[in-house]
Write a structure and sequence with these properties.
Blueprint: H1 3-28, H2 31-39, H3 47-62, H4 66-86, H5 89-94, H6 96-122, H7 127-152, H8 156-186, H9 205-232
Length: about 240
């Protein structure tokens, strides 16, 4: 297994763990539990940051937007499991019927969940997120339907490429969190003063908002650039040996 394949496998595991944890948190935890857990997360955080995330993210999600975020966590968990099954080489080799019907179910569920995703994003209240993430929501049906049609037409290489891009639409949101984590070491230490936002220990509400927006924007080229290189650039992917969609 190559280093790239190890990274892909690790990403799948992280996606499932993060999705399940979010599902448990928004269905069973209190606001205090979420804040206690978030305070110990590897994010660039100070007192202003804790208040920013509490007032702008967690309080709404535990209040008037709770139904939306609960559906979102259910949707994300099922998609994470579905994509993990699709990327499991043993299933593609030994249980092709599971791969075929699992893929159809995953695409169908993604399409059925789109209206709720649009509603959640529309009410997010962060223009950068809306501008950057809205195209991703349109990419989901484009690549999902195209990949399904290519599988039916036995266009295996084209199907592989479309499904890599389809999967990237969901990995993108996890990459945002990884970029946020990376902003911590970038904005601490002697080099922090040369960063656009400066040391994160001095960040205020606006700085935390800019950091979150920056992570959303930076995650897009990182996620879809790598996905496109695998889909169309000849880089080996776990889907390379898929025999049918």
């Amino acid at each position: 297994m190559s280093a790239l394949q190890y990274a892909q496998t690790g990403g799948l595991i992280l996606m499932v763990v993060w999705a399940v944890k979010s599902l448990v948190a928004y269905h069973g935890w209190t606001l205090e539990d979420i804040m206690a857990d978030f305070e110990g997360s590897p994010m660039p955080m100070n007192e202003a940051g804790l208040l920013y995330w509490k007032n702008n993210i967690f309080v709404p999600y535990m209040g008037e937007k709770r139904g939306r975020i609960q559906f979102h966590t259910i949707f994300t968990t099922l998609m994470a499991i579905g994509l993990s099954v699709q990327f499991t080489k043993a299933i593609r080799r030994n249980a092709m019927v599971v791969h075929v019907w699992g893929g159809r179910a995953t695409v169908a569920f993604a399409l059925l969940g789109l209206p709720a995703l649009f509603k959640l994003l529309h009410g997010f209240g962060m223009p950068t997120a809306q501008y950057v993430e809205m195209p991703v929501l349109y990419m989901i049906p484009y690549y999902g339907i195209q990949g399904w049609r290519q599988a039916r037409a036995k266009q295996i290489q084209a199907h592989r490429s479309s499904m890599i891009m389809f999967s990237a639409c969901f990995y993108y949101f996890g990459v945002q969190r990884l970029v946020m984590m990376a902003l911590g070491p970038l904005h601490s230490g002697p080099w922090a003063k040369y960063m656009p936002l400066g040391p994160y220990v001095d960040w205020d509400d606006d700085d935390h908002s800019h950091a979150f927006s920056s992570a959303i924007a930076l995650a897009f080229p990182l996620t879809f650039g790598l996905a496109a290189s695998q889909a169309y650039g000849g880089v080996t992917s776990p889907l390379t040996k898929t025999k049918q969609g």
